[in-house]
Amino acid sequence: MPEQHHLIVGPVITEKTSAAFQARKEYAFRVQSQATKPQIRAAIEALFDVTVTDVRTLVMRAKRKSYGRYVGRRPAWKKAIVTLKEGDAIQVFEG
After folding, report:
1. 50 lies in which domain range?
2. pLDDT tens for residues 43-92?
3. Which end of the chain is more exposed for a tag (fewer CB within 10 A), N or C?
4. Do the Cβ atoms of 31 and 80 come closer than 8 Å?
5. Number of domains observed in the structure of the chain
6. Contact (Cβ atoms closer than 8 angstroms) between residue 7 and residue 43
């Protein structure tokens, strides 16, 4: 099992996740594929000193990409959507 700071790969900052942050205070993170919900909750709480109320995970499927005659594939990865207690915030998303 990886250490807590290795479970969280990085934030996912897109237009859709920014809208979810503004509307529902949900934060999206790219996490290791073997990470579980309790591990993700503990890692977020330890790294950012916040209280997590809900963790949802989903596996983003691999995408097929082609460049001319060369065909390849982007790997699948796991995304965690984290909801925090009212009043808590993570500064990475605040801008």
Report:
1. 4-85
2. 999 999 999 999 999 999 999 999 999 999 999 999 999 999 988 888 87
3. C
4. yes
5. 1
6. yes
